[in-house]
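Hi F.,

I've been meaning to write this up properly since the lab meeting, where we talked about keeping a consistent format for the predictions we share between groups. The idea is simple: the sequence comes first, exactly as it goes in, then the structure tokens exactly as they come out, then a line or two of notes. No screenshots and no reformatting. I'm using this chain as the first example so we have something concrete to point to.
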Amino acid sequence: MRSARIALLVVLLVAFALAPQSSADRGREYIKIQELTMSLEEGDAVFTVSFALDPFAKIYVLALGTKYIEPDLMALFSDFENVAVAKTGPSRAVLVSKGAGEYRSGYYLYDSKQLGSQVPKLTVVYPERLSRTFYDVSATPSVFSEA
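Output, unedited:
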């Protein structure tokens, strides 16, 4: 009975010792982007990111807060300028890229930008509340909207 407890304790200690190391080795694999919505708002791009966390990251976020995952969410938008995190939760975040659209002749033009990883579903929401959905993308599309 005593040896079974010791063996269980050793297995748990090894699992906890290896878990953070394996998450670090995997890079951003602890967070899986499920969906991205890009809302065009007067020259700004407002991104709503839906994601899932692996169990260890979820426990960490629930215990210590979401500041831990914000750098990896920002890395998704490394090709954009003036990006800031507006709100982060355990499964959703809102980031804003100020001045993402260039104003020309009554229109805002948004150039295509690379994303930090592949996104399974990207929805662009125009100011008129029309939307277009793209699947399995690694960059935002080039789009425009009326000012």
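Notes:
Confidence is low (pLDDT under 50) at residues 8-14, 20-26.
The radius of gyration is 20 Å.

If this format works for you, I'll send the rest the same way.

G.
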